[in-house]
Amino acid sequence: MSTNLPPSGLHGDYTGSCVVCLNGTETAVAFEGEAEWVIAGFTVLGVMSDQSRATLAESAPERWQDGKVPAGRVTEAVRVCGDCAGRAGFPVGLIAAGVSLPGVVQP
Ligand SMILES: [Zn+2]
């Protein structure tokens, strides 16, 4: 699985907690694919569907306005701890400037 995801800095800062367990964490995973697929990925992580949309709208409000889903492929990173991501079978990477996060890419 190869991907060319932007470094975390492009999404601004990821201040906050794991979206699943709300514990503080310095790791995240990025999803790349169609918007509904990205939301499905969040759901697999353990985020409720409504919360997935809210989380995405918060991360990129210019693209996820008014609950609308952007067309085409998107790349969205979410802060999640290793334990929660591991339960869903997703990789996580340390959030650091200039370092690409591991990506879960829609086939
Ligand atoms: Zn967690």
3D structure, described in words:
It is a single chain. With 107 residues, the chain is of the alpha+beta class. The chain has helices at residues 35-45, 49-59, 82-88; strands spanning 27-34, 73-79, 93-94, 103-105. Strands 1, 2, 3 and 4 form a 4-stranded mixed sheet that branches. α1 (35-45) crosses α2. Residues 4-14 have low confidence and may be disordered. Zinc ion binds next to α3.
Shape: globular
Total domain units: 1
Bound molecules: zinc ion
What integer value in Å does the Rg equal?
12 Å
Count every beta strand, where a strand is a DSSP E run of 2 or more residues.
4
Q: How widely separated are the two ends?
A: 9 Å
Based on secondary structure, the structural category is: alpha+beta
What's the gist of this structure?
The chain is of the alpha+beta class and 107 residues long.
What order do the helices and strands come in, and which of them pair?
Elements: E1 27-34, H1 35-45, H2 49-59, E2 73-79, H3 82-88, E3 93-94, E4 103-105
Bound molecules: zinc ion.
What distinguishing features does this structure have?
binds zinc ion, alpha+beta, 4-stranded mixed sheet, 107 residues
